[in-house]
Amino acid sequence: MTQTTVAVTCGDPAGVGLDLIAPAWRALRDEMVFALIGDPSHLPPDVPVGIITDISQAACVMPHAVPVLLLDIPGPRCPGNPQAAQAPSILRSIEIGAKLAQSGKASALCTLPIHKQALAKGADFRHPGHTEFLAYLAGVDDVVMMLASPILRVIPITIHIPLSEVPKALTSALLKRRIRITHTALIQQFGITAPRLAVAGLNPHAGEGGRMGREEIDVISPVLDDLRTEGINLSGPLSADTLFHSAARAGYDAAICMYHDQALVPIKTLDFDRGVNITLGLPYLRTSPDHGTAFDIAGTDRGNPTSLIAALRLAGGLE
Amino acid sequence: MKPKIGIIPGDPSGIGPELIAKLLADDAVDAMADILLIGDAHIFEAGATIAGTTIAMTPVDARAEDWVSKPLCALHAMQTVDPDDIRPAEVTKEGGISALRTLDAAMALTQDGVIDGFLFAPFNKASLHLGGLGHDDELHYMAEKLGVTTYISELNTLDGMWTSRVTSHIPLRDVAGVISEKRVHEAVYLIDTVLRRSGLARPRISVAALNPHAGDNGNFGSEEIDILIPAVQKLAETQMAVDGPWPSDTVFLKAVAKEIDAVVTMYHDQGQIALKLLGFDRGVTVQGGLPIPVATPAHGTAFDIAGKGVADVGATRAAFDILCDMVTNWEKGAAA
What we know:
The complex is a heterodimer.
Chain A: E1 5-9, H1 21-28, E2 33-38, E3 49-52, H2 58-61, E4 66-70, H3 87-103, E5 108-111, H4 116-123, H5 130-138, E6 144-149, E7 152-156, H6 166-169, H7 172-188, E8 196-200, H8 215-229, E9 233-238, H9 246-249, E10 254-257, H10 260-271, E11 276-280, E12 286-289, H11 306-315
Parallel strand pairs in A: 1-2, 1-5, 2-4, 3-4, 5-12, 7-10, 8-9, 8-10
Antiparallel strand pairs in A: 6-7, 6-11, 11-12
Chain B: E1 4-8, H1 16-24, H2 27-32, E2 34-39, H3 41-51, E3 57-60, E4 73-77, H4 93-111, E5 117-120, H5 125-130, H6 138-145, E6 153-158, E7 161-165, H7 172-178, H8 181-197, E8 204-208, H9 223-237, E9 241-246, H10 248-256, E10 262-265, H11 268-278, E11 284-288, E12 294-297, H12 314-335
Parallel strand pairs in B: 1-2, 1-5, 2-4, 3-4, 5-12, 7-10, 8-9, 8-10
Antiparallel strand pairs in B: 6-7, 6-11, 11-12
Helix pairs in contact in B: 1-3, 8-9, 8-12
């Protein structure tokens, strides 16, 4: 029997991530196996910890204790207060996790939140974010962000840019590349044989034949036509406002959205707690909880483990 | 005194007449208001046939007679279309002309005080344009007919959650350039007025941000810092219950949780995505900024199911309920 263990990076120990490991372990110990790559002394004293030296040992430990793949991190955990000296270890945890996932020793990777500025200060971290660092480690040019809950998957093609810059950023090349990545990943990592992708328009009523914007005619439709000749099952460009009610959702496996809030409004409004952030285009499945380091509540019991549990469940193949 | 509500059947080729028949089949509706049907008797009768009900109407001269005291359902009879010219589930010039003529009659009857406000069943925009509509939509048409020169906007509502929008049917690339403090103020004042006119003493209004994460302190756009934050601050200083700008991916959850009554959105899909996924069949549109109460179900003529008798009356009923609230509270809300 092959054991499937999800590798979990420690993220910034100053952040809320480590607070959520114990509740996540209690919720999932009988359902799946994960291993935290970090320092056991950073976990609270009231949770049992089993130190392992190889990720294959995690399965035996999981029912009784949190499996921790030992990584020495200098200094104690200082909630809310990132330590420059710990920055290299935070990156090391990510490198180890990525390597385990890429080699197949881990079945997937789940990452706890990092804080870019703290890493830039302590370890000269120059990547725009977590995801870009993982792409760099894997040697891939582009990755796609997907948000998934048990009832909806959405992919924003453009992400953290001003709304006014979306039309310019939305090029044929970008759209084509990201739809291809999505299609491939849904087959390879989600086991969907022939993914059905619904593509939203950019403008109200998908432009209504050019009366309210031309991007559907000039950019989106030609890309979809090209991709259909490659055998990708695409519908659209569709009016975004009628794409997300329950009857519409039944018609596709994932919705391709043109900008951040076109994707995030529906998934958060429908299913706020269970949204998981997934990176597509890596050689392995990577998930992360849909929140940041939340330094203001780190070290308290106010952190909500729901999103981490959902991210672990998805990485563990339970959703 | 019961509200005097006019009802027009919308486009005769769509599900409108069927919805009106289903609405009137509920005795509670009759108890809430005095209803004046405005339009062709054969259209209402055809709707009843599709709905599997009957409709008993008394033709009246609504301007000359005391129509409220008539037995059965009062009908302000018109001849807007020949029955043979109605083609179900099709965009037609005749359907558009019929819809526009009943709309004109309903506006005139409201202005003359014969009715207090009216509900219209769905129009088909393409048919309206074929039928002679030169404006972008029915709201702009009504505004001109009623002599409105001030700010108007469609307001959408679902289960007590309202939205208005600062921009509407324009390309997304033009949205940021149109957002201004003035327009935000107009949108907030409009929804505040309409909500007070529908019976809320002090509507709680949240303004949505334009950019992802509300601009993330300027990292993903500056409109929040330059326009929206100052705009909201000035409104809050007038003692309105308004706050924001909030990231749009979570602001609707505040409305779902009933922490607020309304969200002022920046562009069409921002609010429409949330409302339609929460209740595709129950949304209502109120024509904001008009001097008279007008409401309609938010959905369209639904040609795919027209004539089948399966149309859901939920949104039409919700529109009727809101219209009754608006008529009852109209003067009070305007004076506040």
